[in-house]
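Sequence only, no structure available. Ideas?
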Amino acid sequence: MNICVFMSAADLDERYTVPAREFAGLIGRGGHTLVWGGSESGLMKVVADGVQEAGGRLVGVSVEFLHKVARENADEMVITADLAERKAQLLLRSDAIVVMVGGTGTLDEATEILELKKHGLHAKPVVLLNAAGFYDGLKLQFQRMDAEGFLPLPLSDLVFFAEDGAEAMAYLEENA
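Reply:
I predicted one. Tokens follow.
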């Protein structure tokens, strides 16, 4: 399975790197491919290292203005002209999407993927990996959107909130 992971390129503490490394190991040991932003820094590097060390493949999709921080030893690296093309390529090359901790870029990627799914433009499973409760507030907001009729399909059909990597991988293997 090709698993797209949206995540931060920032250097983060163990609350986030340990669960990310654990999930990366599950990707690699499961014989899966990581499809990611291609960066050789921060959490992106932690996950790519973990997948590669566990025997998985790496498909990076970077963007022209970040090509200098793209991982050199990925199995495949695509350089896109802009962020919109990058997101389209990440979705195209994946069977499932996992959203790890991140900032505005990660939130942008997550909301676009969910918007596309909401409109039936893809049916890939989407998981928010809620390491250290990072997405608790977002989960509450989505629950409110669902309860107040802002979502045209049930929240459970749109996104799955996983508390750890094992729960995320089990969901993906059942739903991809």
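The mean pLDDT is 96.
Hope that gets you unstuck.
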